[in-house]
Structures are given as structure tokens and as C-alpha cells.
Specification:
This protein has helices at residues 5-21, 25-57, 63-91, 95-106, 109-123, 129-162. By secondary structure, it is mainly α. Helix 2 runs antiparallel to helix 3 (63-91). Residues 1-22 form the signal peptide. Keywords: Signal.
């Protein structure tokens, strides 16, 4: 008996679908967790990159453009907490994550960046060039030396779990 491709393809696809439905839930949930970790890492990196782009551009911005760009960066910075939460749920017992979380949360370094971005967003238009420069230097001092290395730690631990051969680093501003 001969079968055509158009006859066999639906049968093969139906068989494949029933096989994937029969997989143990552990396999499906591991795949789901892996995807959540990868998404959280990639989305956190994208948000970090947006903030770094803003901080790189600050010297060229003023007035309402500074405030508008700062608001975008502030939103991205706050969004980072959602991605951090996903990684914290999976790695809270890893001593490297405990230490990185201490730097970000307990030492309030992350909050200091949020506060600076909020200051730029709310008051940037009325700031003098000297005030802008000082706030930028203070922000980058904490962010470049403490916040970004702590985020790198999260990315490193996540990369080990994903075992995908890649190693992400948080994007640095050009004036880091």
C-alpha cells in the first residue's frame, strides 16, 4: 500500500503531538523554568542596557529631553526588579546570589540608582550643568563599581544553570 506525503504528514504530526502530551510533567516544567530563567536574564540585560544608554547620553541631554529620557531609564530600572525576582526565586540559596543581593538590596546600591534616575526625571530640566554632571558621576560611581558587577553575578549563575555556553555581562555606559 502506498501513502502520499499529504496523507502521512497529518498522521506523523498527530503522533508527535500525542507523544509530547505524554511526556512527564517534570520535563515540561524543567523546560518552562529554563525558558523563564533565559527570559529573565535577557530582559534584565536589555533593561540594564537602556539605563546605560541613558547614562552615556546624559552629557548631551538637557531640559525636557533629559527628563523624558530619564523617565524611560527609570522605568527600565524598575522593570529590572521583576527579572531579578525570577532569578532570586531560583537561586536564593546560592552564596554568590546572596552576596550580590546584599550589595543590591541591603546596601541600597540599586535604590540609589533608582533615586538618581527619578531625580533626573523629575528635576532634570531645572538642573544646572554642574548639578547634572555631579549626579551623573555619583550615579555611575555606585552603579559601575557595585550594581553592575552584582548583576554580572546573577547573569553568571544563571548562565551556569542554562549551560548554554554563553556568558552575559551587564552593559556598561561609556562613561563608567
Amino acid at each position: 500500500m502506498q501513502y502520499s506525503l499529504s496523507t502521512m504528514l497529518p498522521i506523523a504530526l498527530a503522533s508527535l503531538f500525542s507523544l509530547t502530551q505524554a511526556l512527564p510533567s517534570g520535563i515540561a516544567s524543567r523546560s518552562s523554568v529554563t525558558q523563564q530563567l533565559a527570559d529573565a536574564q535577557n530582559d534584565w540585560r536589555a533593561d540594564t542596557s537602556m539605563v546605560s544608554q541613558f547614562l552615556s547620553a546624559v552629557p548631551t541631554l538637557q531640559g525636557s529631553k533629559l527628563e523624558a529620557a530619564a523617565q524611560v531609564a527609570l522605568d527600565a530600572e524598575n522593570d529590572e526588579l521583576l527579572h531579578k525576582k525570577v532569578l532570586d526565586q531560583n537561586f536564593s540559596s546560592d552564596p554568590r546570589i546572596v552576596q550580590a543581593n546584599d550589595v543590591l538590596v541591603n546596601q541600597r546600591t540599586f535604590q540609589s540608582v533608582v533615586d538618581a534616575l527619578a531625580n533626573f526625571a523629575q528635576n532634570g530640566a531645572s538642573m544646572t550643568p554642574g548639578e547634572i554632571s555631579t549626579l551623573l558621576q555619583q550615579t555611575n560611581s555606585v552603579r559601575c563599581s557595585q550594581v553592575l558587577p552584582a548583576i554580572d553575578t546573577y547573569f553568571s549563575v544563571t548562565g551556569e544553570k542554562l549551560n548554554n555556553g554563553g556568558s552575559l555581562l551587564a552593559t556598561r555606559p561609556t562613561n563608567c
